[in-house]
Amino acid sequence: MAAPEQEILLAPSQTGIQVSLEPAQSVFHSLLLLAKTNNLSGFGKWVIETRISMSAMEKQHHQLVMIGLYYAIQPERSWPSFLDYVDHLATMSPMALRDKLLNSYFNMPCLDVAEKSQRIVSDKDFQNLLSSVDSFLTFLQERFSTEHVDPSLESQAYAYIIDPPAMQVLIVNHFRSMWEKYLEAEWERVKPMLQDAVAAFTQVDYRPMGRLEAAEFITGQTLGESHMLQQIEHAEQVIFVPSAHVGPYLGGFRYEQAYGVVFGARLPEGTHYYAPDLSRAEILVRLSTLADDNRLKILRLIAEEGEKRSQEIIQQLDLSQSAASRHLKQLSATGYLIERRCEGAKCYDMNSDRLEDTLRAVLAYLSKA
Question: Class of the 292-367 domain?
């Protein structure tokens, strides 16, 4: 296989960290973001505008492919381009594609079981799982919380899972259509900026840093005690992939022996690498978080009264649970709020340093104009 196009790697270091363009994974993650717009706010402009422009049928197919069939389609290794990966999916055995999804489900523990089962999954296990749509839905609800299982969507997925050739055609045709209509031009537009991000991070010496310190330096975020932190600490290798669309959030993925993190494309602190498009992109992510009346009210409330529980914020500002959740996730991801667990609830406090850093970034960018 030819080397991935324009891939730039960090020199080996004791941290086991690599920063890479990863075209297939990057595009795949942008597609995933298009399926998440109802749950999170703050994604890049392209994500919002593309989601709005998609037809009702495209949206339906997209949710089905990216959510209902997710474990069949996630890339498991690096590819030179997104189309190379789609071609791979097109040449796979339909049964192998189906089994990839089902094996992923079986390798997840039930919610009330601490450890994964070590038994070998058999054809009989698959047959029992797929014996009826009710059996399939019950199986999923044992592995995911009820709120994360959409019976209507998963019933549609079931109809394709029991017909692997039809499932393969749906996936491949949808990916090729989305690439041609929405992604090809966008990838060519953002690729130079992403290459600049990777090149800038190659100038950093990571040898004095520990794994966690390096991860937080690259992403620009505090990882706390998150599930992602645990994956980063235990993986043999960690691959960081810059994205023009993920906004303030982080995305995770897994290759064979490596764990991957998708992060908002940015310049590392202290770099002398000149990339005004990257500086502007990071500033826009931060300012877009502040450009909302409710989010400003949340910040003002906490600035005036100190740390607040999520329920207190909801009640004092008369917000719905879903709206408050979206706003608090975006404010926390951007770093303006510090989130912690307090007696079973989520509490939020102001991060004044982040606000001051945003003002400095704006001044620094304008001073170079």
Answer: mainly alpha
